[in-house]
Amino acid sequence: MNDLRNQLTKEGYIKINNLIDKKLLTKINVLTTDLVNNQTEKEKKEQVSTGSMISVSNHENFLSLIINDELLKIFSRMGYNNPKWSSGYIIGKESNSAPLYWHTDWWAWDDPISFAKEPPMIFVMFYLTNTNKTNGCLRVIPGSHLKFNEVHKYIKKHHSHYRLYNNPDDPVFKSVKDELDVTSNLGDVIIGDGRILHAAHPNLSNEIRTVVTLWYYPDFDQLPDHIKASSEDHHKWPKNWNEKSLDILKKYFPKYEGNAKKIKWNRIRYE
């Protein structure tokens, strides 16, 4: 097992500096800025804490990130030779916006696989600007993907409740003693175990702070059948893409053809 996979397994996240071509990210940033700015007021009110949640499945340009050569090389180096892409969103936090609440991305906490050493799901973050505490950089609690943390007790409701930011005093929005800021520069990539507790500082700058987050199953073939079956509900086959792009994506899109019973979706970890 190599150094990157060791760190991901131990800490729950890794940052790889200067991995993605900056020209590509600059082009992506033009597109995402337009998409975020064109949100309706209703959409903004539904995602006060999160920022925009715009699916990349609706926009073919993001294939260049989903199957990015440099990213796939990193996956291969980590021993993930057949990763499957799950979903992705453009998450743009406008200037002077709220913090993002503490949460995990994993959705099967009732299943024993949730407590295995290896990550059943990972996220990949492509920040489209340099990030720091002022403009809302990522916060993580290292090791919380494997160990129960006091912060888990704060997360009592579905994420849709916290997105509204109705109670700024709720501890899910607060800083905690064992958190770590993960700043980044354009071109860096952050990979995290989907089970790690993470959040983001408020964006107190005068500019939008956007990240494209993609989720993958690093070893989909090794997941239990009931997890594969359940995951199907959350993979959205892109619409309005050309046939060539769809043919390319097929290799990286999870597919399950068995008859296993689906399990209940649960993103809350209990002690």
Q: Would you kindly provide a written description of the structure presented here, covering whatever features stand out?
A:
The chain has 271 residues and is an alpha+beta fold. The chain has a single domain (3-250), classed as Jelly Rolls (Sandwich), CATH 2.60.120.620. It has eight helices and ten strands. The strands form two sheets. It has a six-stranded antiparallel β-sheet. The chain has a four-stranded antiparallel β-sheet with strand order 4-9-6-7. The longest helix has 16 residues, at 22-37. It is globular.
Mean of residue pLDDT?
Answer: 95
Fourth-level CATH superfamily: q2cbj1_9rhob like domain
Largest sheet strand order = 1-8-5-10-3-2
Strand content: 15-25%
Q: For the report, how would you describe the main beta sheet? A: 6 strands, antiparallel
Structural class determined from secondary elements: alpha+beta
The helix tally amounts to 8
What shape does the CA trace take? globular
Q: What is the distance, rounded to the nearest whole angstrom, between the alpha carbons of the first and last residues?
A: 30 Å
The parts where pLDDT drops under 50 for at least 5 residues are: none
Order of helices and strands: HEHHEHHEEEEHEEEEHH
CATH architecture: Sandwich
Number of strands: 10
Radius of gyration computed on alpha carbons: 18 Å
